[in-house]
Amino acid sequence: MIKLAMSDKSTTLKGFRDFLPSQMAVRNSVKNICIDAFELFGFQPLETPTLEYASVLKGKNGQEADKLLYTFKDKGDREVGLKYDLTVPTARVLSTYNIALPFKRYQIQPVFRADNTQKGRYREFLQCDIDIFGSSLPNTDAEIIAITYYILSKLNFKKFSIRINSRNVLKQILSASGIEKDQNSILQSLDKFQKIGEDGVKKELNQKGLDSSQIDKLFEYIKTAQPDDYLNKVFENLIDFGIPSSAFTFDPTLVRGLDYYTGPIFETYVEDQNIGSVTGGGRYDNLVKTLGGPDIPAVGTTIGLDRIVDCITELNLLPDLGKTKTKVLIANFGEEKKSIELLSKLRQENIPSFFYPNPEKLGKQIKYADTLGIKFIAIIGPDEAKNKLITIKNLLTGDQKTVNSKQITELLLIS
Fold first, then answer.
1. CA distance linking residue 15 with residue 306, whole number of Å
2. Are residues 184 and 309 both part of a single domain?
3. Comparing C-alpha atoms, which of 159, 165, 187 is closest to residue 175?
């Protein structure tokens, strides 16, 4: 038997969390809204293993990302790692299997990063991805952004902005500024613009060897940059998808730090919430080929489910969401056989039901149901059993009535 120190028993590892039923209610609601949206837009589900060969994970997201990988040797002395994101494993899938293209995939699974923890940033979190593989046309970029808008609207977010840029625009800016070497390193510094501001980025670029004239020229070009032809077509397609022009904007300071992006990039920010981006993605046309697979263009985004849940909780965007889906607690009041028969009948009618297993005082059972947020309690005592009736009480209003089995089913179905 393994004995744990008290500190190990009473807490989770830093950056890892437990989710109690009330929290899971929000998480599951968000997941279900996302899945419904994905399938409405024609995406198919995919899952990949938690562990991958370290060689699959390393070198795909950039040096900074490699520092955050959880890697170790397994019992077979193989170098393995916990997945950093869902995009790289999916690219491996496409390099392994003969999948019909275009492939529209969605995937919701935990990922792991040895990151510094802070609000909205964890070491294990649920990533929610959508991607379109097999097309290099702007309408696919636009569709990914359109589904982002659709989901956030369904989740009752009223104030959010989708910021869009392109790696091609950024590379043109760098070249025009006379910066040809170490472009990915320069972009990693520019990626910190939202966090440390213009002065902070300039200081870091100076430390990387750029002189003041190059830095000034770089920011001059950034401030006057315009979308390229491809991005303008994406914007046109967004309007065609019914996305209002006020919902998205061209932001030449947007970089996204992952090295595999090759074209448009985009992030979504919720206003009045200092939590960073809640979605982020872009086009990555070379990643599948990099993993040894065919040359397949791709575009996708991550829906930051954990950050979105945090925002929903803080802003109370799902006020009518109950603690539980259980609609009725059937009390244990001396007629176990009749109570279980009622339980079975209600479940056959798809009414979420719960039989209290212990024959305890009715007041305690009512208090228990109220604690869980169960709206109704059904009671079959000796008198009810004799007359083939059930007493049903609404714990929210206090209303109580005695009904037969058909009437209780009808009452619960409409409540």
1. 12
2. yes
3. 187
Question: Residue 126: what residue type?
Answer: L
* Contact indicator for 151, 303 with CB cutoff of 8 Å: yes
CA distance 105 to 285: 16
Nearest one of 140, 146, 133 to 107, comparing CA atoms = 133
Q: Are 329 and 376 in contact (CB under 8 A)?
A: yes
Distance between CA 401 and CA 155 in Å, rounded? Answer: 37
Q: Does the pLDDT of residue 4 top 50, yes or no?
A: no
Instruction: Show the tokens assigned to 263.
Output: 């074209």
Instruction: Check whether residue 393 and residue 266 sit in a common domain.
Output: no
Q: How many domains does the chain have?
A: 2
In terms of domains, do 351 and 305 share one? Answer: no
Q: What is the pLDDT of residue 290?
A: 83
pLDDT in tens, 370-406: 999 999 999 999 999 999 999 999 999 999 999 999 9
- Do 181 and 258 share a structural domain? yes
Q: Please, what is the average pLDDT of the chain?
A: 90
Rounded Cα–Cα distance for residues 37 and 106 (Å): 10
Closest by Cα among 268, 322, 378, 287 to 92: 287
CATH number for the domain that contains residue 38: 3.30.930.10
Q: How confident is the model at residue 272 (pLDDT cuts 50, 70, 90)?
A: low
Match 């004799």 to its residue by tokens: 386
CATH number of the domain within which 342 lies: 3.40.50.800
Q: Is pLDDT at 273 greater than 70 in this prediction?
A: no
Domain with 212 in it: 11-315
Region of 41 please: left (phi>0), alpha (psi -120 to 50) or beta.
alpha
Q: Strands, DSSP E only, in 137-227?
A: 160-166
Give, in degrees to the nearest 5, the angle at Cα 49 between 47 and 55.
Answer: 125
d(CA 27, CA 48): 21
pLDDT in tens, 183-226: 878 888 888 887 888 888 889 888 888 888 888 888 889 889 99
Q: Which helix (H) or strand (E) holds 109?
A: strand 103-112
pTM of the model: 0.83
Claim to verify: residue 146 and residue 98 sit in the same structural domain: yes
From the number of C-beta atoms within 10 Å of its C-beta (0-12, 13-18, 19+), residue 230 rates as middle
Q: What is the 3-state secondary structure (H, E, C) of 66-95?
A: HCCCCEEECCCCCEEEECCCCHHHHHHHHH
Q: Is 164 domain-assigned?
A: yes
